[in-house]
Design goal:
Layout lengths: L16 E14 L2 E8 L2 E7 L5 H7 L7 E10 L14 E12 L15 H6 L1 H4 L3 H23 L3 E2 L17 E3 L7 E3 L5 H9 L4 E9 L11 E10 L3 H20 L9 E3 H8 L13 E2 L10 H8 L3 E7 L7 H13 L8 E6 L2 E3 L8 H11 L6 E7 L1 H18 L11 E5 L4 E3 L6 E3 L12 H6 L9 E6 L2 E8 L4 H10 L4 H14 L7 E7 H9 L29 H6 L17
Parallel strand pairs: 3-5, 6-9, 11-17
Antiparallel strand pairs: 1-2, 1-4, 2-3, 4-5, 7-8, 9-10, 10-22, 12-13, 13-16, 14-15, 14-16, 17-20, 18-19, 20-21, 21-22
């Protein structure tokens, strides 16, 4: 239906007769001469209709409106002097039309495609129109390019692309499963996979050695900007490898993706930081290292303090720590309220953050009068407090203080716009994660990553002695600018060690047999040492595109309530269809909501 796409015509085509097809991007009437910018996914070409050359054709072109689908045939000509457009590749030429076929007329659009739209619901309802916008089209194209680059790299590295089942068993991945009733097995359910974890390990037992998959994953959890109920991972697993092998592989993979997607080179070796240091210095296991504002311990400054709150905290084994938000002494009341809200959400036991700000040559704070001169001097020196700075303090347990100040640090950076317009890509490996964490609500130990993660061999005695809080995992996360791009680990491959791990997690022998009997059986038959990692493709595409939400790089995402406003899902199902799968619903739907089935 065309000889060229709409970004292909150049001066070398002058004099040729071409046929283009696409959408009317804009139509302009200049004294009876009609100019149409014709658009397809590749770009624009200007088409001209002259009434003196073809009155009927020009009259027909007068009926065109934006987003009509048309086919134009004509001769490529050079644009007149002073009418060129340097912003587009076809800006020095135009097509003088000799034929026009209106393929499909468009109704008036619900929103303009050349304007930013803040109403997310309208965008989601008409997502197929939203995707026509250049910004969105660019994002989807870029995602395709980096996905292809990942496939090429892994193919060339000897990995097989293998699909794993979508209908499977529930898995202990830390979120709720989406359940699917089985009509052929009444009363039984499949679960949509949160990750292909057990299947990829079983492929290692099968001797396939190197596996990858652009895997669809599903988690029923609360949504946020970088989280969707269905998402995509670049899932990787390999046999006869250690942590260093996986790290080198992933560094090469990410380098190939960023080269393809952005045309830039990134370091072939990323800095590393232990989990303990990340939490101590940045208050996060995915720290953004593009700015300083590091958490500083003030135990030495207040070692002899008589300030009651700090004294009692230190005497009970707690910590006093702070961050210096340099240049932020002019924080507004609204911003301060927001920081207090963030801190309380993170676990601050009081209603306001303690602070000291240096303004007009004075130190302003309710706390300042309680410190000795020596403490004041040591505090100013240690935190390098200068005019215009504000220091936020938190006292408490080491873990809670780190979490609170980590959240406050990120919010301060956002308010100060420390990363606005930044083109830095600060990659980082966080290693030596704890293997287990105590769930305070249940009182049981839980896997920090998942129950198949290998304990660090150096901590085997601690595991045997029940010192679970101090056992490290052979686990590693790759981080970029405050986002976790992916996480992985070296896996357990011995049946006895895996059964021990389940036991620590409170999974008894009978439950092990029901939920994990297949993988424990597989480990009896010569399972190789293996490990891997899963990268969040949506999140990588989001960061490369410079977007703040993964919805902007997913063709048809859900909104923040997990709903598809375009396809009207999730929806109510007719009781007859539920009866076929032996499911009875007790939920009472509003009368206005029609069942589907």
């Amino acid at each position: 239906m065309r000889t060229h796409h709409c970004n292909e015509i150049r001066e070398s085509h002058i004099g040729e007769t071409v046929t283009l097809i696409g959408w009317v991007n804009s139509a302009r009437d200049h004294g009876g001469v009609i100019f149409i910018d014709l658009r397809d996914r590749e770009g624009l070409t200007q088409c001209v209709f002259h009434p003196d050359q073809n009155p009927e054709l020009a009259a027909l072109s007068h009926t065109l409106r934006e987003e009509d689908v048309v086919q134009v045939t004509g001769v490529v000509s050079k644009r007149l002097e002073g009418t060129t457009n340097d912003r587009i590749g076809t800006g020095t030429v135009e097509v003088v039309a000799s034929g026009l076929n209106i393929v499909n007329k468009a109704d008036v659009l619900p929103f303009q495609l050349d304007k930013d739209l803040s109403n997310e619901d309208i965008r989601m309802k008409y997502r197929y129109l939203d995707l026509r916008r250049p910004r969105m089209s660019k994002n989807i194209r870029q995602r395709s390019i980096i996905t292809s680059a990942a496939r090429r790299f892994l193919d060339e590295s000897g990995f097989f692309e293998i699909e794993t089942p979508i209908l499977s068993n529930p898995t202990p991945e830390g979120a709720r499963d989406f359940l699917v009733p089985s009509r052929l097995n009444p009363g039984r359910f499949y679960a949509l996979p949160q990750a292909p974890q057990q299947y990829k390990q079983l492929m290692m037992v099968a001797g396939l050695e190197k596996y990858y998959q652009i895997a669809r994953c599903f988690r029923d959890e609360d949504l946020r900007a970088d989280r969707q109920p269905e998402f995509t991972q670049i899932d990787i697993e390999a046999s006869f490898v250690g942590q260093e092998d996986i790290i080198r592989l992933v560094e090469g993979l990410l380098a190939s993706m960023f080269k393809a997607g952005l045309g830039i080179g990134i370091p072939q070796s990323f800095p590393r930081m232990t989990y303990a240091d990340a939490m101590d210095i940045y208050g996060s296991d995915k720290p953004d290292t593009r700015y300083e504002m590091k958490i500083t311990d003030l135990g030495d400054v207040f070692a002899a303090t008589e300030f009651k709150i700090f004294r009692s905290t230190l005497d009970q084994g707690g910590v006093v720590r702070a961050i210096n938000a340099k240049g932020f002494a002019g924080v507004t009341t609204g911003q301060m309220n927001r920081l207090n809200e963030i801190a309380i959400q993170a676990g601050l036991p009081v209603k306001t953050l303690a602070f000291i700000k240096c303004e007009g040559g004075e130190y302003k704070s309710p706390l300042w009068k309680f410190f000795t001169d020596a403490e004041k001097d040591a505090l100013v020196a240690k935190l390098a407090i200068a005019e215009g700075d504000i220091v936020f303090f938190v006292a408490g347990s080491r873990e809670s203080v780190s979490t609170i100040l980590g959240r406050v640090r990120c919010e301060c950076a956002e308010m100060l716009e420390l990363t606005k317009n930044s083109d830095a890509y600060n990659f980082l490996w966080v290693v030596d994660f704890p293997l287990l964490a105590l769930d305070e609500e249940s009182g049981h130990w839980a896997a920090v990553h998942h129950p198949f993660t290998r304990p660090n061999a150096d901590d085997a005695d601690k595991l045997a002695a029940g010192d679970f809080a101090n056992v490290r995992a052979v686990a590693y996360d790759v981080v970029l600018n405050g986002y976790e791009l992916g996480g992985g680990s070296i896996r357990i491959h011995e049946k006895d060690l895996q059964a021990k791990m389940f036991e620590v997690l409170g999974v008894g022998p009978e439950e092990q047999e029901v939920k994990f009997g297949h993988i424990l059986d597989a480990f009896r038959f010569g399972a190789p040492p293996h490990g891997g990692l899963a990268l969040g493709l949506d999140r990588i595409a989001m960061l490369m595109a410079g977007e703040d939400s993964i919805r902007e790089v997913i063709a048809f995402p859900k909104n923040n309530k997990g709903a598809d406003l375009m396809a009207h899902s999730p929806c109510q199902i007719d009781f007859k269809q539920l009866r076929e799968v032996y499911v009875q619903s007790t939920w009472k739907y509003p009368k206005a909501e029609k069942p589907v089935g």
